[in-house]
Amino acid sequence: MSRRKLCLYAMLATALAFAATEGLNRYIKKSDVPETNTRPNTSSRTTGFPVGIQALPSGFLPVQSKTAKSLAAGKVLVASRSLGDPHFAKTVILLVHYDAEGVLGLVLNHRTDVPLSRVLDTVKAAKDRSDPVYLGGPLETAAVFALLQSPAKPEGAERVFGGVYLINSKPLFEQTVSAQPKPDVFHVYLGYAGWTQDQLRQEVELGAWFVFPAEPSTVFNAHPDALWPEMIRKTEMQYAEAHWYEVHGVGE
User: Fold this and answer.
1) Which element (helix H / strand E) includes 228?
2) Whole-model pTM above 0.85?
3) How high is the pLDDT of residue 121?
4) Per residue in 161-186, is it b (16+ CB within 10 Å) or e — as a string?
């Protein structure tokens, strides 16, 4: 498929996503997701460090897939270079909810300059927290979610994978923030990315996304602006290597 066709498809898919969120809205309402009037200033995101100056740890990238059958909560989507939709270009997204109601994901690499204290201004324990929030996606940017890495499951939280949990209710937010989790295991997101199951499967099959198993080092990476370049580079290297072995018949 040409780059132009893929870009046009991605733009159409985004429009459909805005119109296909009824099931996710029911999920969010049922979960009592807190809301805020804060809007992040996406024009001045914190960079972390210049892309390309520092590499992520060796072995950072697990085996990836372009097969829609591998989609599930706890998987990571990495946008292909051909995905030209401005909402999702160069994004890394963790799928936190995946069922017949819809698919909900949080963008991991769009850090803002908005402090947590401003977003959770009604939570007393968040008063002095300066760690930045993330723009989780283009939908419902007033809705607030969080991801927490914890050795024990917080009561009422949804397990996404391993020891990483989704915080998606007002009481759970207050309880979690009161425990003063460190910023390297607790990230807050405004908004989300949403699809129907069929829609996301089609996008993966068309090559818009690479699918990875999630790792805490991906979700809570200290340098989110370097996340997509590093993951896409290693993805392409692995595909090039696999193609070379296929062409030369090595390993048969």
Assistant:
1) helix 227-248
2) no
3) 86
4) beebbbbbbeebbbbbbeeebeeeeb
